[in-house]
UniProtKB/TrEMBL annotation:
A GO MF term: DNA binding
Domain Antitoxin Xre-like helix-turn-helix: 16-73
Name of the protein: DUF2384 domain-containing protein
Residue ranges constituting the Antitoxin Xre/MbcA/ParS-like toxin-binding domain according to the UniProt record: 77-130
Cross-referenced InterPro entries: Xre-like_HTH (IPR046847), Xre/MbcA/ParS-like_toxin-bd (IPR024467)
Source superkingdom: Bacteria
Length: 132
């Protein structure tokens, strides 16, 4: 029986580049300011954030990957719910009368800093699609 070398990277480590590239594209589509981008990523140190933004690559922690995953799911759900991409992207910034948002926009809820708020917005959109 021969010993097998372990791979040098784990699948999670390989997701950093694609996840960051996707995030920065979403941030552009959603017209997010730098402070909002950092908040959605879990408030990484400024130097780390700018390194990620410049290189569009890096090893991300589980929390950051989870946040980007929810954001991607929110984006996908909006694209399904609104046939016009501009309308889908604008929805995040519009006041929402749902009890979940209390007259505030979805982006305001998402910018609380809690990963659970990203989950709640994603769940709300999935319910609107009939995926609950």
């Amino acid at each position: 029986m021969t010993a097998h070398a372990l791979p040098r990277t784990t699948p999670a480590e390989e997701l950093g580049g694609p996840a960051l590239r996707t995030f920065f594209k979403l941030a552009e589509l959603w017209n997010l300011r730098i402070a909002e981008q950092r908040k959605l990523l879990g408030d990484p140190p400024e130097s780390t954030f700018y390194k990620w933004k410049r290189q569009q690559d890096g090893v991300l922690g589980r929390d950051t990957l989870e946040r980007i995953s929810y954001l991607l799911g929110i984006y996908k759900a909006l694209q399904i719910l609104f046939p016009d991409p501009a309308q889908a992207d604008a929805w995040l910034h519009k006041p929402n009368q749902s009890a979940l948002f209390g007259g505030h926009s979805a982006i305001e809820r998402m910018l609380s800093g809690n990963v659970s708020d990203l989950y709640v917005v994603r769940q709300y959109l999935d319910a609107q699609r009939g995926w609950n």
